[in-house]
Amino acid sequence: MAEATPQTEQPELHRAIGPKLLLFFVVGDILGTGIYALTGNVAGKIGGALWLPFLLAFVVAFLTAFSYLELVGKYPKAAGAALYTNRAFGIHFLTFMVAFAVMCSGITSASSAALAFGRTYLRQLLVEFFDVALSPESLVITGIAIVFIAGLALINFRGVSESVKTNVVLTCIELSGLVIIILIGIWAVVNGDGEPGRLTEINVPSNSSVMLAVTSATALAFFAMVGFEDSVNMAEECKSPAKIFPRAMLWGMGIAAVIYVLVAITSSLLIPSDELAKAGSSALLRVVTVGAPGFPLWIFALIGLLAVINSALINMLMASRLLYGMANEKIIPKFFGTVHPFRRTPWISIVFTTGVAVILVSTADIGKLGGTTSLLLLIVFTIVNVACLVLRREKSEREHFRAPTWAPVLGAITCAYLAMPVLSGRPWGDYVIAGWLLLAGLVLWGINRVLHGKVETHPENLGK
Question: What Pfam families does this protein's entry cite (predicted)?
Answer without folding.
Answer: AA_permease_2
